[in-house]
Amino acid sequence: MTNPLRHRPIDTLSPDIPLDRIGETLASFYDSLVAEGVPEHLAALVRKVRQSEAGEPAAAPVAQLQRIALVVEDNREVRVLAEALLEETELAVVGCDSAEAALAVLQARGGDVALVFADVRLAGEMDGLQLAHAVATLWPRARLVVTSGHCVGRPEIPVEAVFIQKPWRAFDVLVEAERAVGGSAPPIR
């Protein structure tokens, strides 16, 4: 099967293209993309776009509109510590041990996620850098914090992300949570 992207002119993305149009374009390529081996988490996102176009009800009921801090860390003790710290803020806290689990939360409640606090090394197929790029692209209004015990260069993380070296200080995490809650959402690029 041929790639439909190779036979169509590709315009460069510009800030004036609405996100729903991007979603519609992705949905129109869905069958060809799946045939060429798109990762399941991206295929699930495209299926969700198709469901919303068909007028199916949203996955999250209105009662779940509290803003969320998503902690993505495979070390249980570190995740529990970060969750306990963030529970002191006005954010609801959801912990995940893998990027795949975090993407499931983002697919269901992405509009409610104010902060994604993710380690670079995670359980599962995806690492935290791949997750960070997905969040920056698909949920650009979420504040993105990447953390690691190893030095990570700026070219490896999205420009929208803040990097906090491990061991992180509670104060630094709380400052980022406050920025996620109190500040205006970052502009969509």
UniProtKB/TrEMBL annotation:
Ranges of residues in domain Response regulatory: 68-181
Pfam families membership: Response_reg
4-aspartylphosphate modification, residue list: 119
InterPro entries noted in UniProt: Bact_response_regulator, CheY-like_superfamily, Sig_transdc_resp-reg_receiver
SMART domains recorded: REC
Domain of life: Bacteria
PROSITE patterns attached to this UniProt entry: RESPONSE_REGULATORY
The keyword Nucleus is assigned to this record: no
Transmembrane segments: none
Entry keywords, A to Z: Phosphoprotein
Name of protein: Response regulatory domain-containing protein
Lineage: Bacteria, Pseudomonadati, Pseudomonadota, Alphaproteobacteria, Hyphomicrobiales
